[in-house]
C-alpha cells in the first residue's frame, strides 16, 4: 500500500532543504538536463583560469566537483545554511568562500578575475561582473530561462508573466555593460513529479517558483495535486535553461 497524503506531506515538509543538490528526489521526480553539459564546460574553463569567482555558489556542490580549480578561487553566497555547507566543501579544495548579500556591489577590486561563473543566479549583476573581470576575461553561466516550471507555478498561483528571464534580454544587458556575448543557447526540458511530496520538497527548495510557498498556505491545492497524480500519473512541467558566455574586450582570454 502506498503512503498516504498526510504521510507524504509530513515527510516533505520537515526534511532539510539546505544545499543545492536534489538526491532526495531520486525515484520521485525527474528532470531532463541541458545538452551542453554545464559541469563539464565549467571544468574546462576553470582548468585554464588563473583567478576565478563563482557567484551565488549555493552549497558549493558544483564548484567542488570541478577537477582542477584555478590557483585563486573565490565563491560568494548569502544564505547562512548554504554558506556553511560551501565553506566546508570548498576550503578543502583551497577555495575561499565570502559571505555576500543579494545586492551589488561585489566585494572585490576591479579587474581581478579572468573567469566569473554562476549557475542559476537569482539576478545577474552585469555591470559588476564587467567591473571585476580582467580585459579578455569571461563570464560563464547557466541560467533559468523564461516560464520555467510555469505549469507548477500556475497550478498554485494562476496565470503569471514569465518573460523577465528571456535570453535575449540577458544578451542586451551584457552588451550594455560592455561585454561581448560569444555563446548563447536555450532549451526547454521535461520534468515529472511522481507524488505530492516531491512537489512540496521542490517548492521549499526552489523558492522562487512559488514565492511564499508553505504547506499551510496551499493545503487545498496540494490535496488537489495529490488526487490529480493518483488519478493521472506524474505531474508534468517544463524547465527552461540558457547558457551564456560573455567576454570583456581587450587583453588575452584565460
UniProtKB/TrEMBL annotation:
Question: What GO molecular-function term can you cite, just one?
Answer: methyltransferase activity
Pfam families named among the record's database cross-references:
Methyltransf_11
Q: Which keywords describe this protein according to UniProt?
A: Methyltransferase, Transferase
InterPro entries in the record, alphabetically? 23S_rRNA_MeTrnsfrase_RlmA (IPR052939), Methyltransf_11 (IPR013216), SAM-dependent_MTases_sf (IPR029063)
Please give a single GO biological process term from the UniProt record. methylation
Q: Does the keyword Methyltransferase apply?
A: yes
Residues in Methyltransferase type domain copies = 53-139
**Top-level division of the source organism's lineage:** Bacteria
Instruction: Write down the CDD domains for this protein, in alphabetical order.
Output: AdoMet_MTases
Name of this protein: Class I SAM-dependent methyltransferase
**Gene source species:** Nonomuraea marmarensis
Q: What is the lineage of its organism?
A: Bacteria, Bacillati, Actinomycetota, Actinomycetes, Streptosporangiales
Amino acid at each position: 500500500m502506498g503512503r498516504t497524503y498526510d504521510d507524504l506531506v509530513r515527510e516533505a515538509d520537515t526534511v532539510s532543504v539546505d544545499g543545492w543538490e536534489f538526491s532526495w528526489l531520486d525515484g520521485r521526480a525527474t528532470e531532463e538536463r541541458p545538452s551542453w553539459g554545464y559541469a563539464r564546460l565549467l571544468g574546462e574553463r576553470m582548468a585554464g583560469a588563473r583567478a576565478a569567482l563563482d557567484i551565488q555558489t549555493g552549497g558549493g556542490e558544483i564548484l567542488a566537483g570541478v577537477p582542477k580549480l584555478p590557483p585563486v578561487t573565490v565563491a560568494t553566497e548569502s544564505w547562512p545554511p548554504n554558506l556553511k555547507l560551501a565553506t566546508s566543501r570548498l576550503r578543502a579544495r583551497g577555495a575561499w568562500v565570502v559571505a555576500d548579500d543579494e545586492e551589488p556591489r561585489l566585494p572585490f577590486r576591479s579587474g581581478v578575475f579572468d573567469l566569473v561563473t554562476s549557475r542559476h543566479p537569482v539576478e545577474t549583476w552585469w555591470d559588476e561582473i564587467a567591473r571585476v573581470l580582467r580585459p579578455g576575461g569571461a563570464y560563464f553561466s547557466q541560467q533559468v530561462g523564461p516560464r520555467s516550471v510555469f505549469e507548477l507555478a500556475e497550478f498554485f498561483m494562476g496565470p503569471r508573466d514569465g518573460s523577465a528571464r528571456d535570453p535575449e534580454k540577458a544578451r542586451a544587458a551584457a552588451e550594455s555593460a560592455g561585454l561581448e556575448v560569444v555563446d548563447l543557447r536555450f532549451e526547454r526540458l521535461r520534468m515529472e513529479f511522481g507524488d505530492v511530496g516531491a512537489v512540496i520538497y521542490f517548492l521549499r527548495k526552489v523558492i522562487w517558483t512559488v514565492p511564499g510557498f508553505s504547506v499551510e498556505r496551499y493545503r487545498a491545492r496540494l490535496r488537489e495535486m495529490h488526487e490529480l497524480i493518483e488519478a493521472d500519473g506524474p505531474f508534468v512541467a517544463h524547465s527552461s535553461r540558457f547558457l551564456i558566455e560573455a567576454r570583456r574586450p581587450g587583453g588575452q582570454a584565460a
